[in-house]
Amino acid sequence: MTGRVRQWLAWFWVVALIVAALAGCSGAGTPAPAVAPTPGANPAVATPQEPATEPPAMPEATPEPTPEPTTAESTPPPVHGTVRVAYLHHSTGENIWKGGVPDFIAAYNEAHGTDYRITELAYPDTSGGYPWENYPYDYWNLWVNHTGTSQDRGELNLDQLAAAYDVIVFKHCFPVSDIGPDSDSDPPSVSSSDKTAANYTLQYQALKDRMQEFGPTRFIVWTGAAETEQATNPESAERARTFFAWVRDTWDEPGDNIFVWDFRTLETGGGLYLKPSYASAPDDPHPNEAFSTSVAPLIGRRIVDVIEGRGDSGSVTGQ
Questions:
Q1: Average pLDDT over residues 73-99
Q2: How many domains does the chain have?
Q3: How far is residue 256's CA from residue 253's CA, in Å, rounded to a whole number?
């Protein structure tokens, strides 16, 4: 066989082998296109596709805690350190003072290591010509009607008293119980000195608003001193009992800086009149020495309770 023939035969077998190889691959249909491997991945290992998921829900915002409101039931906190107390009085209050109020405070300081300093003041002191009267109208006039640098005949006003004292104790003498009937013709007036329950109510409301302006200062008002049966009449006595029960049970609210000492209940036992055994004489409603000595520690204890944050929880009579 010549060289040219051998060359043609070699090409024939090459072509035949290529055709046979192509015929063997065509029976499975069209081959799937090749997928380029991820750069850096091992082409021999399939990478599973993660299933599609919803985005995670955002957590609900937690609301800020609502602060507890300051309620009328909250008790004012104790006053610490040196506490200056003004004890305002005329004759009835002077009898109780002499019954042992400063002695009680001094003994309490000694026993408990406190520094409560109590000062008695005749108020109004009348040295400038103001009348010897300390009734609801007078406190309204001196404390509400006169403010800042304004004074009535030189009497201290509430701005001046509150600047000098941390606790102010005040009271009315027993003529406060001479309460007449409300007038059918004249409307009640806060600026009237007439002793009626309607006028007293307006004056007490105005005093309450004014005292609450002095938040750090604490006030203790006595329920009105009673009169003996011989010194008054049943109608006035009943009006007085009703009015001062309103002061104690309604006007005085827990949580503020105003407190009551229920002196009237101590004097009357809840009745209409000052008990005869407590009076200086049947027709003299000033408290006698024995009674004054027995209740002086009670006003002392009431003052301490108010200073130490028990004004709303302690006994309103100090017993």
A1: 93
A2: 1
A3: 7
